[in-house]
Every structure is written in C-alpha cells, then in structure tokens.
Amino acid sequence: MSNQQIAVLGLGETGLSCVNFLLKQGDQVTVFDTRQNPPGEDKLDGSVKLFKGELSFELLAKFDLIIASPGIALATPALQFALAKGCEIIGDIELFARELSKPAYRHAKLVTISGSNGKSTVTSLLGEMAVAAKVKVAVGGNIGIPALDLLDPEIDLYILELSSFQLETTFSLNADIATILNISEDHMDRYDSYAQYTAAKHRLYKQCKMALYNRDDKLTHPKDHLINKTSFGFDKCAYGLLTAADKQIFLAKNGSPILAVKNLTLSGKHNWMNALAALALGEAVGLSETDMLTTLQEYSGLPHRCEFVAEINHVRWINDSKATNIGAAQAALEGLSETIAGKVHVILGGDGKGADFSELAPVLKEIQGMIFCFGVDGPEIAAQNKRALLVETLDQAVDKIFTTAQAGDLVILSPACASLDMYKNFMQRGEHFKRLVRALPASRN
Questions:
Q1: pTM, whole model, 2 decimals?
Q2: Which residues make Cβ contacts (< 8 Å) with residue 68, sequence separation at least 6?
Q3: How many domains are there within the chain?
Q4: Is residue 442 part of a domain?
Q5: Which residue positions in the chain have pLDDT lower than 50?
Q6: Has 209 been annotated as catalytic?
Q7: Is 241 part of any domain?
C-alpha cells in the first residue's frame, strides 16, 4: 500500500492510530471528520489534510482506499457512494490483519473475541493468563489500545476484542481461534434486523482456523459444518461444568474436573462461562493449563464489571457499577444465589432513562437477601419487589447491609441504571462503592 493516497474517515483514538500507522508506511493521508472539533486533531502530523464538517461525496470517492471508523456505518450515504465508484473500504482491524500476514509477524498467534456481553472480561482474563505463562502478549482492539498500536515483531500472541462494527469492514484476520461468546439483541439503531446484527458477528468465524462457540446459545453456533470447532457450556461436554457427588461444582474439560468454582474470585454463573471460554482459547494457543488455573484464582475482573472488592467477615462485596442497563444487571444477578452458600444482597438504582423495570421482577424474586434501591428511579425499581427498600444514598445501603449480612453472603452493586443523576459516570459510582466497602471495620461490634 506504500505511497497510496488514503482517506481516514473519523478521527479519535482509532483514527489517529490509523493515520500514524499509514504515515510510517509512506502513504499520503487525508482525514475526514464530520465534527468541528474532532478528538485527536491537536496530535495530527502537519502533513495531514483534515476536512471537517459535512462529507463531500465526490472528494471522498476520489480515494482508492478509505479507512472508516467503526462508529461510521457502511450504510452511510457517502460510503455507499464511494463503494459505487469502486473505492475499497476497510477498517483499522483489516489494516492490522494485512500487516500481521507479513513475514515479520507470521510467527505470532492471534485470538479474536466477540459477543454481546463478557468479551472484555474474557479478553483481559486471557491476556493475564498469557502473562502468567510468560508469553509476549499484546491485548487490545475494541478494549484499551487500538490494534495497530499493538504491532511489534517481538509479540508472540495478539488477543483482540472485536465489536460487530469492527467486523463489518474486516475480511482477512486468519485468527488461530475465534469466539462469539453470546448474542443478544443490541445496536438495533445500527442494524435493520437482529439477523443482520448476528450476521455481522458471524463474520468472525469466516476468518479463523478454529471456532469456539457457546453450546447454550444457538446463535453463536458456526454455520459452516466443515470448520474446526470446539465449545463451552453448562453441561460437561468439552469445556463445561461438572457437579460432584458432594454437590460441589467444577470447571471441567471433557468431563474431568479441573477447578472448583468456589476457588474463582469472579462471581456468578456468567463468569463461570467466561472462565471456560478463556481456558478453551488459551489451550488452542498453547498456554499452560497450570498458569491459566492459577490466574483464574487470582483474577478479580475488570474495574466495575462484577469486580471483586473485598471479603469482610466472610461476606464478599462485588462492584458491578458498569451494569448501566437492565440487561447487564440481569446477566449479573441471574442464578447468583445458586453459586454461594448464603444470601445475595443487591443495590440498584440511578437513572433508568425510561427503561421498563418490570423486566427485573423475575430476577429480583430470586434474591433472598436485602434489596436496596436509590437514585431518581429507585422508587420504580423498588416497586418490582415488595421486600425492596428505598435509601437516599449508596452510603446508607452499604451501612445497612453490613449490619445484616452473614458469613457466606454476597453483596453486589448492580444498578441497572445510568449514574448521571448522582455521579459523573459509572466509574465514579463504582469507586465510591469501593471506598465505602474498604472503609468497613473488620468486625461488627
């Protein structure tokens, strides 16, 4: 691609990484962004032309290659016009894939991870497993560092989280193993149908040597019967779960136990699935099982995503402030009571942005511990369960649960709401919760 005239559509962190990569290749780069003050403008090389505001169809179509930001749909009229004129449109992940196919990188292995929920946890967990196994690893994509910024001939393993948006413009990943963890309705403002969203995810399987799918989610099953594949799920096949005679549950491989789930720092059945997926992916790229299992017992999760905070008086406290919608809270809470010896206590509330909280009623019915609701939509959530109590602040909820919770119980902040009624963002809310928990005394007087 050297010395090509290339357009980068959309600046920001990903767009800037594309520009810097292309300049190093000796290409001439022009940037288009509809925003008047695009992020990263101050970091652009002086040789780069920047066109701001409404896109010029004719000007954009003069470029042979357009690198489009994942936030810009292919259905955008300017891109459709360019396609009709014969322009090639790809994204930064395709640019990464083409570079990775060059001789300097051919020794490296590639894992690609997608799904509606849990992909960040699995991506980061697998990265920690690789570090424990002393593998030179780079982790990024839709999480953390843009893919192009990861490229280094010294890296032996790349782990990429990929969104459906990124997959729309990606064609040649050739991953050693790829997984779609789960599929639930999302991004319907971008896609014409649920089927179209699912099809975007399935592009991942067309670009891999092996597919890992979720046995309990038929939408993740590869449609190509010839593809090499493995799976994870709640039964004991391949990577799955095994219940021993004493009712203890184990992560298992081909029906043989490998780790009791009670030894996981991560909480919840959905995280058992994340752990199984990470183990299967790691095996496929040659990571040591011993190192992977050690990591699983130490990994506390990403900040604000079912993050283990502390164990006080044998009560576990979990920060799931990232659960800013009903679906995320449901995923965290469903079946949680079955995973612990004691009761689950939950804290919910914030700004539901018009959500229908009646969808929470079934999962709240499972909760045997205390249910506290706060924030602007606290009363609406509390109306879904007769045992729910209203408090004015998170501080009050933490204090009340602390005085009541017994050994073996679990406490989780999983708001099912945005935080903007009381906090700057969900991170600030989560950090407040963690400070409150860590300030609790070691014993109750």
A1: 0.88
A2: 9, 10, 74, 79, 89, 90, 91, 169
A3: 3
A4: no
A5: 1
A6: no
A7: yes
